[in-house]
Amino acid sequence: MKKQTVGQSMDRVDGRLKVTGGARYFADHQPEGMLYAALVCSPVSSGRITAIDATKALRAPGVADVVSHLNAPPVPGYKVENPNPKQGLKIFHDDRIYSNGQPVAIVVANTLERAVYAASLVKVTYAQEVHQTDMAHSMDQAFQNKNMKDYLRGEADAWKKAPVSVEAEYNIPIEVHNPMELAGIIAHWETPDKLTLYAKTQGVKSVQQSLKTLFQLPESQITVHSQFVGGAFGMALRIWPMEIATILAAKKIRKPVKLVITRKDMFTLVGYRPAAKQRIGIGATAEGKLTGITHEAVANTSPYEDFTEAIVNMSRMMYACPNVNTHYQLVPLNLSTPVWMRGPGEATGAFALESAIDELAHKLHMDPLQLRLVNHADIDPERNLPYSSKYLKEAYEMGAAKIGWQQRSQTPGKLEENGWLVGYGMSSGVFGAGRGRATASATLKADGSLVVRSAAADIGPGTATAMVQIAADATGIDVKKIKFLLGESEYPEAPRQGGSSTVSTVGSAVNDVCRNLQQKLGELATANIPAFKDLKAENIQHEDGQLVAGNTRLDYAALLQQQQLPELVVTTTSQAGDERKQYAMYSFSVHFAKVQVHPATGVVRIKHIVSVADSGTVVNSKTARSQMIGGVVGGIGMALTEEALIDHRFGRYVNNNYADYHVPVNADTPPTDVLFINKKDPVINPMGAKGMGEIALIGFAAAVSNAVFNATGKRVRDLPITPDKLI
Amino acid sequence: MNQFSYVRPASQQAAIDAITRDSSARFIAGGTNLLDLMKNGVLAPEKLVDINRLPLKNITLNNNILHIGALTLNSEVAAHPLVKTHHPLLSQVLLAGASQQLRNMATTGGNMMQRTRCSYFYDITMPCNKRTPGSGCSAIGGINRMHAIFGASDQCIAVHPSDMCIALVALDATVLVAGPKGNRRIPFGEFHRLPGNTPDKDNNLGKGELITGIEIPHSPFTQNVYYLKVRDRASYAFALVSVAAALDISNNTIRGARLAMGGVAHKPWRLHEAEKTLIGKSPTADNFRIAATVATQSARTYQHNAFKVPMAQNSIVTALQKAAAV
Ligand SMILES: Cc1cc2nc3c(=O)[nH]c(=O)nc-3n(C[C@H](O)[C@H](O)[C@H](O)COP(=O)(O)OP(=O)(O)OC[C@H]3O[C@@H](n4cnc5c(N)ncnc54)[C@H](O)[C@@H]3O)c2cc1C
Ligand code: SF4
Question: Which of these CATH numbers, 3.40.190.10, 3.40.50.2020, 3.30.390.50, 3.20.20.450, describes B224-324?
Answer without folding.
Answer: 3.30.390.50
